[in-house]
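Entry for the shared binder. Reason: the reviewer on the internal report wants the predicted structure included alongside the sequence.
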Amino acid sequence: MKNKMKPFLLITLIFILVSSQLSASQNPIEIGKKLLYADSIKNSDPEKAIQLAMVIMDTCAKRGYDSLWIRGAIMLGHIYTENGDYQKSVDILNQSIELAQSKGLELLSTHALNFLGQYHAKTGSYNTALSYYHQVQKVFEKHNDKRGIMRNSTAIGIAFMYLSNYDTAASLFHYALSVAKEINNVRGQGLINNNLGRLHKRKNEFERAITYLETSIDLLTKSGKLNSVMRSKTLIVEILLAQSKFEEALALAKEAQEGSIKYKDYQNITRTRKALAETYIALGEENKAEILFIKAIEDASKYQVKRNQLDVMIAYAKFLLSNKRNDEAENLIDNGISLAYKINSSESLIELYQLLEEKHEEEGNLVLAYQFSKKNKFIFHFKKKLKL
């Protein structure tokens, strides 16, 4: 009972502490500074950022600071989307859009629409995401909001990348990069180079991908965005694994993991643990790999990084199946399917049902294998319909 009370007491203490600090200085400038601080810790400590944003929004509602309330709501929506709490994300973003439109705050409502687009992209509804992004782009261009144009063009590029429309994606990334250079946004340039690296990685153009990722690392280091540096390094690790450069992958994976822990980037911590586990498997050190898989799943569950948790669960299930530990694998896959339905991840569902199909085929359970094959085909065609 004591252990169950600790998170509640901690959240309550944070709420009281922040509330007392805000009551001491409730002018818009000070509240705006606290909102910026909450935004700065949303990756390293999302729970604290959520609590801080809620207290700020409560104060803003009482004081009538509508634009600050909307900014807090948009940030909350972004955190909820990243954590896989999609219903909360949609609810708070729709509230922010409704208030912004009622107050004539067109740019703020547009930023909220952009994050709604991101929600739809993360759940695989790329056609819906693009419809939001195109609305957003028109408003940003109307207001000559260069930063908004840069970020939204990147988001459109990411959607097209996941639709495997690589030429259009590359064109949009390069356009966003030109805008980032025009406004001297070094951080933006670094993040866009990261996306160009991801794009070429998906095309198996590994040397080009590494070039973009190394450029990304240089730019992000200059801008002080050090957690994103580790994300670019993790992508390079995955490329080195694909190239069977296991010793290089091992050294860089350890570096990326240490950096991600240092900068409290919980999303990338789970990804680096997975990459490190897969490296150990390739090097024949399966005991170390299994410890890392288990730790990555624990971390992802603890910090509510649900999409990354699914990726690790799939990799661990494959490991268990390869070692003929079929019952353990099936339990893990069942848990993964429940999580995938919860966060609307059709891509993960397809992989998980494919694993079940292969497991039952190998065991000679052809009826069950056929049933999972039918489910998989249904989800695949449904996903295809959402994308096109």
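Summary line for the report: Residues 31 and 56 are 7 Å apart (CA to CA).
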